[in-house]
Amino acid sequence: MDYLKSVVPSNLFSDRGSNIVVINPGSANIRIGLASQDNPIEFPHCIARYTTQVPKINVQDQMLSSQVTTTQYMEREKAYDKIATALRIPFLDEEVAKSSFPRKNSRKEAAFDWTDVYVKDSIAPSALESSENIATTKEAMDLDQHEDANAEELDSSRHQYRESIFGEEALKISPKEPYTLRRPIRRGHLNISQHYPTQQVFEDVLAIWDFILTEKLNIPLTERNMYSALLVLPESLDSREIKELLSVVLRDLQFSSAVVHQEGLAAAFGNGLSTGCIVSMGAQVTSVICIEDGVALPTTQKTLPYGGEDISRCLLWTQRHHQTWPQIRTDLYTKPIDLLMLNRLKEFYCEIKEEKVEAVAVVHSYEDGMPAGSHKTNLTALNVPPMGLFHPTLLVPDAYPPAPSVWFIDHEDVLEDTWHMEYQRRPEMSDGLYPSMNVGYPMWENYPSFSAKPKKEEKLGLAEAITRSILSTGRIDLQRKLFSSIQLIGGVALTRGLVPVMEERVLLAIPSTEAIDRVEVLQSRGNPTFVPWKGGAILGILDYARDGWIRRDEWIQNGIHVGKGRKYKDSFFIQAQAMYYINS
Q1: Which domains does the chain possess?
Q2: Burial group, residue 54, by CB count within 10 angstroms (0-12, 13-18, 19+)
């Protein structure tokens, strides 16, 4: 305690944070870095693997039709018209092309380039000899068209495909190339399905994280025993998924120790709050949870199955229905590069305000490895897509297959006090979390079952979700404090005009019978996207007693059956130390 009172904060972070790696994984992106750093690396959470499968699958988990049902279509149109009335803009069936409203100037945004999928400087000897022979022959005589075609084929054989491609490079691979894109986390859960087996999901998580640690943070496998890992995990993950990610970190990535912190609680610490309502708005999931005096309240948790990528898809739908989108093949399901483009357009042009928001923008088309085409167009109703947060029927979710139901049954919720339960180890269970990586669903037979309430995803508007979450606390003094301490985190929190609309909508959603007359969204101290990661770094550095940390050898020997009955949650002691540091 005396040390914490006297130490210079920068020295504390430098001394203790240089060997702690903070990992905050999400459905679309992962944020990872040393606790001593100011900001993490943000990296698309995906991998593309070379495949010889015929026919090729462009996206591993894209197996169902992405068609919207008639009911969803009608509900989406009704939601649009309701928003149009509130914002005083034209309805879907009204003419908008000749509007006299002022437009934003177009942004000169460079187009994406297709990823080079070949290993650099990889030339097969036989192919090299063939090319030399061709060069000699060319000196002697002119080749006809048929010979030119053979030479082109030989030239292509000189290249060797890269086995795995990570991050944004993976998203920019041409659909014609022999690669399959995989995203190990989707909609806030491990993306396990009949088309994406358990083993592949964990292999992909391991490969992505190992690549970032080795290539971006310069921490090779041989040196990781000198580092500890701190996982900042979203509340949407259930305890089984958390245990599997712990096993990847300790057994496979070989960190010396690890600990888990909740994303909502870490976000509160990242902004110096002890009490607040944390609203996390990610790419695919939006969640709400309340924090009181440094403790997460599990009964207040709400998980909403929509996020920033749904807003991008809605942007495309809006333009197509207003006939402002150029006649190009934009496919967000089989061409991830198109989603990258839509995300960029959304971030720059979309905002929430009354009256029509229009812009002259440059839209790019990407066709089968050809150079990107540029199309200047007038985008309209740019304030409608982000309003889908409050009218979720506007954001029709993508039709990816859901994870198997076993993953949604949370037998031991990380937010609940089940740590005192004794686990009976089965005689046939080997050391480690599960027998081997070459197994599928039978691995779950090693877990005991408890009758716990499963987490539910609710199709509520965000204002209603926040209101229900706070009112569920049942205490008027706490409710008033929470309504005045709403914190927005995640990429969607950067949407211009969101804060005043959020305050207004939440206030309207509070029943008139409640004695609440004030709603305030607090300004974030830093980039809302990085706040949970930063809070995790603070928690890791101040946890000098390391009571909650799990050693690698202990985990491998005992798996989830830790002899001391420890639960991987934030201790009151850690929370008290973190709050002392922030407020001092």
Answers
A1: 2-44+191-304+404-583 (3.30.420.40), 125-156 (no CATH)
A2: exposed
Chain center to CA of 235: 13
CA distance 460 to 94: 29
- At position 552, the amino acid (one-letter code) is R
Q: Is the pLDDT of residue 378 over 60?
A: yes
**How far is Cα 421 from Cα 415, in angstroms, rounded to an integer?**
14
Cα–Cα distances in angstroms (integers) from residue 171 to residues 7, 112, 333, 408, 498, in the given order: 45, 10, 11, 28, 29
Strand partners, 376: 362
Sheet with 103-104, strands from edge to edge, namely 103-104, 358-365, 373-379
Pull the structure tokens for residue 335.
């061409």
CB 23 within 8 A of CB 261: no
Q: Could you give the CA distance from residue 189 to residue 400 in angstroms, rounded to a whole number?
A: 13
pTM score, two decimals? 0.81
Compute the distance between CA of residue 136 and CA of residue 121 in angstroms, rounded to an integer: 22
10 Å CB burial of residue 8 (0-12, 13-18, 19+) is: exposed
Q: Which of 238, 364, 343 is nearest to 284 (CA)?
A: 343
In DSSP notation, 361-386 reads EEEEE--TTPPPEEEEEEE--TTSGG
* Half-sphere CA count of 194, side-chain side, radius 13 A: 4
Distance between CA atoms of residues 576 and 127, nearest Å: 66
Is the bond preceding 9 in cis, omega lying within 30 degrees of 0?
Answer: no
**What are the tens digits of pLDDT across the range 116-127?**
999 986 444 443
Determine the length of the chain: 584
Say what the pLDDT of residue 370 is.
85
Q: Are 50 and 161 in contact (CB under 8 A)?
A: yes
Q: Which helix (H) or strand (E) holds 144?
A: none
Residue with tokens 């199309």: 375
pLDDT confidence of residue 384: 96
* Nearest-angstrom CA–CA distance, 35 and 354: 42
Using alpha carbons, select from 490, 34, 433 the residue that is nearest to residue 245: 433
- What sections of 350-461 are H helices per DSSP? none
CA distance 219 to 222: 8
Cβ atoms 380, 358 nearer than 8 A:
yes
**Region of residue 2 (left: phi > 0; alpha: psi -120 to 50; beta: else):** alpha
